[in-house]
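During the reporting period, we have paired protein sequences with backbone structure tokens. One record among many follows, to show the layout:
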Amino acid sequence: MSTKKILLIVVAVLVLAGIVVGTILHGQASVTKVSTGKAVHQDLVSIVNGTGQIKPKTYVNVGATAFGRITHLYVKEGDHVKAGTTLATVESVQPQATVAAQQATIASSRTDITSYTAAEKTAEANIAQGKADLEQKKLDFGRAESLYNEKLIAKQDFDAKKAAYDMASATLAQRQAALAQAIAQTESQRGHMNQAVASQRANFDALDKTISRAPFDGLVTNVPVREGETVVVGIQNAGGSTIMTLADMSVITAEVKVDETDIVNISLNQPADVSVDALPGRVFKGHVTEVGDQALLRTTGLSTTQSTTGTEEAKDFKVVVTLDQASDDLRPGLSATAKITTAHKPNALIIPIQALVQRDPAVEKALAANAGKPSVVSASTSSAPERKPQPVQGVYVLRTDHKKRRAIFVPITTGVTGATDIEVLSGLKDGDEIVTGRYRILRTLKSGTSVKVDNSVEAPGDSDKS
């Protein structure tokens, strides 16, 4: 064989190989690489996160109830106290003196009452004596009257007996009036003593207010004063001095802020897991006990009704989670994160959230019928009134068409949303393979497009290009 023929054969082989390679490369260039996932049945949990701080359910500021200098502080921050425990004392010289003076007044009143009672008994004895004397004078007068009527005694003697009887009667009336006076004096003095006793109760109350006691079992969280400082009582709109803050740590809550987009899913008694930054690795179980109705501005923490600015900004809502069991390791003010379980669907059909897209079913149907390309008819009738798109939620499902895998848009309805997955209520079945990415592909993907599955991990450089 001549050299010329050999060269012609080699050239023909090279041309044929080039045509084959070009055909293969052109076919691969028309195929879109996508990452996929499958619709599967498994448990789905919807969780809403909120951040805030640990707070006792009940805490009080123990304020000053008397004016004066603090003479002694019996507790310090971090101490656990029982109800009724003495926390602090304020100088009490004047209240003690007032109590002592009033006590002396009460003692004097009691002595006067004893004296008036003795006067009553004396008056009662005088009345008894006056009654006996009157009875005797009455008998003498009766005999004298009989003798006088029989002309046996002189009129002078009769008049003397009558005068004696009248005097005895007047004396008895005088002594009865003296008894009534003694009784009135005794009752008056008793009234004065009762008044003094009532005033003494007020004096004891004023003295007792110089002593601050714990209203309940709790933890001392703040002591802003020191011994020797002067404290004042609050009046009208002016607040008084705070001696210390006491927290009831038997019931502990986590007060967190939840984004406004999630608050609609929060309801009372939902379970929650609370973690505290200061106690890594520990999770405290709790449940929702309060859901705020007032939106709070994220920058200032003020409610929207209190804000004077008209700017729009992100808002949060207050949610209180009460811990099921208190712990001595928790302190008020510790930063906390609450993970609230808003829904739990066992054995739900789920797909990755990133697979969801918004498309117009009519447009997607036309594209699927033309292998992902706009139809010539629709292009020629572009002068007709344009139909308003009506996008719905759905996913791209892989279908095999003439030995080629194509992405077909399928509308779906969804339910509970989890952290990375979402429940499918209709439109898919278990095992359906769907397109989950990549994001730049999903943005422009059309029904009928020929695809190739590529579930390799995307390099950082590729994601930057998107």
Observations:
- The CA atoms of residues 33 and 352 lie 18 Å apart.
